[in-house]
Every structure is written in structure tokens, then in C-alpha cells.
Amino acid sequence: MTVKSRKCRFMAAMSVREQTDPMPDLATENNKKRPRQQSETANGARPRRGGRLTEARRQEIVSLVAPLFLEHGYEAVTIDDIVDRIGGSKRTLYDRFGGKAGLFEMVIKDYCATVHRDLFTGIEKHTSVEKQLVEIGTHFLNLILHPRILEQHRLMVSMGRNFPSVAQMFFQAGPQTAYNLVAKWIRQQQAAGKIHEGDADVQAELFLDMLTAKHQLALLTSSFECTSPKDVAKTVKAAARLFLYGAAGTDRSRT
């Protein structure tokens, strides 16, 4: 068979293949890969389209999605699970929140913000430093021992190895921000001459860590001993006095 005849047979075969197996339409293929938009939410209402996400709606989404992550873990929750819970479409979920990862970050930051927002609630600035410190410690310990916050802590510890960036985000938004807020209060007391000069950042870390170690670990491991309100109050008072006066005791007249 000549080269020319082989070429003719090859071209004829290609012509038949094009008729039976046409080139795929890229636009059609892309449309197939796009998430199908749902016309209605789980409760029958049409999903929101466009517009500004109100704070009320954001809080509603957090309250709906948070239990999914806390109960099942980040990896086990799917986009379909989230859409079924909050309504709307997958496209809206990605466009507005950055998908599952964006929603998870929003949940974590919201929980952390709750702790920080309430940390100094009801603190009387004109009372003694010791009383203020006891109130700060009591607020902080009661907040982080809340069942919802404990579940969040368990989840972040379990995710730390496989998702280090998420764990880092949690540490910065949660514990580190709490340290910073207490350090700011310490600097204010130092400037007023009520607390001796020192590294306020380290002092804040030491004070908060004195509070959490025993009680938080007990509840994280489901051991409910020594976590009564009376025991919590005892720990906070002892930590505040040790922080201010030291184990050997110092002059308390400055406070």
C-alpha cells in the first residue's frame, strides 16, 4: 500500500469518528460541572439572591451551620449538608462565603468574638484592681467553660494536624486576642501605678493560663469534678491574689 493510499484511509477513518464521537462543547461541559441552583430552600422559601448580607441574616447562618461542624466535624460536613440547612444555592455559598471553608472561619471567629465581647462586661473601673481582676477572670472562665465553646475547642484540637492554617486562625482569633485584651488592661493599671511594671503580654498569658488549665482540661476530658461554680470562684480568687501579690506576699496598699 502506497503512502498516499494509507493517508486517504486515515482521513476517511477520522471523518467517520467525528460523526460518531463529536468534539465536546466546552461551554456545555462547564455548565455540567457548575453546582445546580436550587429554586427553593429547605423550608420552601426562595433563596436570597444578591443584595447585602444583613447582620441578622449572618447571625442566623452562623446559628444554623455551627451545630453541623461541632457535631460532625469539619471534614464530615458537605456543601450539600450546608445548603440543606441554610437554603440558597451552592453558587451563592461560594460567591458570598467562599464555600465551606469560608463559612467555617465565620463560625469560629463569631464564637471567639462572643468571648471577647463579654470579657469586660460589667467591670467597675472605679473598684480595686483585685476586684476588677477577679471579675475579668470569672467572666473569662465561665465563657470558655460553656459547652458550645468547649465543643469548638475539641474540634480545633482534632483539626490541628490536618489543617494547621485553620488551627492558627483559631489561635489568633481566640486565645491570642484574649491575651491581648487582658494585656491592654494590665498596661492601663501599670500606667496608673496600680501594678508594677513588667511585660504585660507575658503577665496576661500567665494569668489566663492559671485560670484555664485545671477546669478546662477536666471538662474537655468529660471529668466534671472540681468544676462547680464554687470551685471556679475559688480558682479565680486565688489566681488574682497570686498574680497581684505573689506567693511571698507584697505590699497591697497600692491597690
TrEMBL record:
Pfam families: TetR_C_7, TetR_N. GO terms for molecular function: DNA-binding transcription factor activity; transcription cis-regulatory region binding. The keyword DNA-binding applies. Residues 55-115 form the HTH tetR-type domain. This is TetR/AcrR family transcriptional regulator. Residues 17-53 are annotated as: Disordered. Residues 78-97 bind DNA. Keywords: DNA-binding. It comes from the Bacteria.
